[in-house]
């Protein structure tokens, strides 16, 4: 099959696009794809990111220093409200708020602190992650709520000896353990943490259940299914990547089980212990030294956005509800054009050219069966409410089937940075005056989704 560059080079050379060169076309596409990668930072599929970028090291190693740039939008397992019983028997409540990067603001209340002669006390401080499972408050500040000075049992001022409080997160039990051996739990959690039988942490229907799809920066569709597997809160996650770097470009599956956690702001996070396998049976290949030995047991998490009913993974990938993509059945081939190879080149070039929004509108009209109708509809689309959603669109042609010498059915993807735009499409091409172009019914049917009606009188 000729490359996309060869197809466009032949077709654009024939039509003599005025200010557009093929190098410019690819430079713009390269810049567009590069900008999408920069803008989305770690927007790779979780399993591809795990094996491809050193992120797994920060996820799976207690000794790996956390980089705030790597952390990006990943949810913090420390954020939220925690409760505990202190070593002196008093009750403690702590709120941790995730700030920028790996910084966290900590406010701890003790209802009867020994250092305050039994009066309530408050400890505050700015904490930083030293690893994904360790949070350190280097300079905590303790005050007695009654205004007195907190003192140690041997008569020292507490602020002179209180340094570096550490909290260790256990993803298996969903607990924190501080420097003094005190175990912290989410409000309402069982005293001994989740049971092996899967006792509930959060009651009620799970917003995570169902089929999900995502499109990270490699532009290949990925799918995920999440199910409750017990009467408790145990979730089973199975995610599929059709092209994984850890499987030499082959299909891969990430699976695991986990539970939900929630913070005082109502942010729900599903945390699992995951494993990666290659669908062809081969052993996953770690692409960084940090990934070595971690491909069969690493933590992943998804935060549920209740307002828009989407998931954001710890790798920055946004998932929305499926169903999982199932390509429609293409028609059987009919009589073929005199030169099928050249005809397919023109069909592919027409779809790629018409749906590439980096090309000026007046130069894209040549790829439409009805240039005036298409141009008017495109103007209305770009003046409407969905302009931002489609401004960076371009097309990828997946399959072309000629049903007769003058007609073809085309499976193609319209790729944008906004998941609101339907990605998978089936359209038609037609031979007009010796050139293959996109039918007007194809484009008009697509813009109708954005409340744009084609004026067929033009």
Write structural notes for this entry:
- The model is unreliable at 1-5, 11-73 and 190-201 (pLDDT under 50).
- Helix 9 packs parallel to helix 11.
- The chain has helices at 4-15, 22-40, 46-52, 55-60, 68-71, 158-161, 340-354, 361-364, 371-382, 387-390, 440-447, and strands at residues 80-85, 91-98, 103-110, 121-131, 134-137, 141-144, 165-170, 175-178, 183-184, 210-214, 222-228, 235-241, 252-262, 268-278, 298-305, 310-313, 318-321, 394-404, 407-415, 424-432, 435-438.
- Strands 1, 2, 3, 4, 5, 6, 7, 8 and 9 form a nine-stranded antiparallel sheet that branches.
- It has three domains: 4-35 and 327-450, Roll (Nuclear Transport Factor 2, Chain: A); 45-65 and 202-320, no CATH class; 80-184, Lipocalin (Beta Barrel).
- The chain is built from eleven helices and 21 strands.
- 21% of the residues lie in helices and 31% in strands.
- Strand 11 and strand 12 form a beta hairpin.
- The chain is of the alpha+beta class.
